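DM from R.C. (forwarded with permission)

"hey, sorry to bug you on a friday — could you get me a structure for this? deadline for the figure draft is monday and I only need the backbone to look sensible"
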Amino acid sequence: MKTVHLLLTATTVLCGLLVTTSAGAEPAWSIEGRAISADSCEVACPCNIGGPPHHGKCDHLMIFHIDTGSYGQVKLDGAEFAMAGEFTRKAFGEPTKHSFIAFYVDAHASAEQKQALQKLLTGPAFAEMGQPTEIKEAPIQIENLDDFGQVEKTCTGAVGDLAKVQVTPVAGGTDKSKPLVIDNQAEPGFLWTALGRTTESFYKSAGKSHRWDGTSGESVRFKMSGGEE
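My reply, with the result:
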């Protein structure tokens, strides 16, 4: 499970990591939409409840589609970006230790959107994840968004030839037509998470190489905001 840092103009704990931003540090911003992720945990990923990742370390890739959003005066509706990372956490409630983070901005976005997303991802909201090893443009595409979060329907995203996420939500036990969902998890920016499995997913860039097949693959509805009011 990936750790994403957001924030309003206050101090917030997100997945065990303390993030602080100050008013006026950046323009007001907000992003809301859908994301799909692949990571090295098993399907019942403990990171969703603030626990330590399976196998001691979480390698992850997440692709975000912004349904509605803005950074200052720049509209971000329809823009996409991706994040790859690695982190460890030894026990429930302990701080998260990030060892790697990289960001990718969709090459198809407008020049204004690219600039805004780069400023956001390198700004105070994401600063506690560490200095990005890589931040660059790449063609990003999420297919089958109409199937997002639906049981046994696969959603696929790609970051050029650098990365791929392919996830299929699994059914819950009470109603087999609905996905197994967490809607009050440890990460406050994630409103709704459908648990699922990965297939044929990978990340290969910035000196890293990961593959995920049968591991945790999640569909997430997110809403984040920050900057000055």
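R.C.: lifesaver. Residues 5-24 have pLDDT under 50 and may be disordered.
me: no worries. The CA atoms of residues 40 and 59 lie 5 Å apart.
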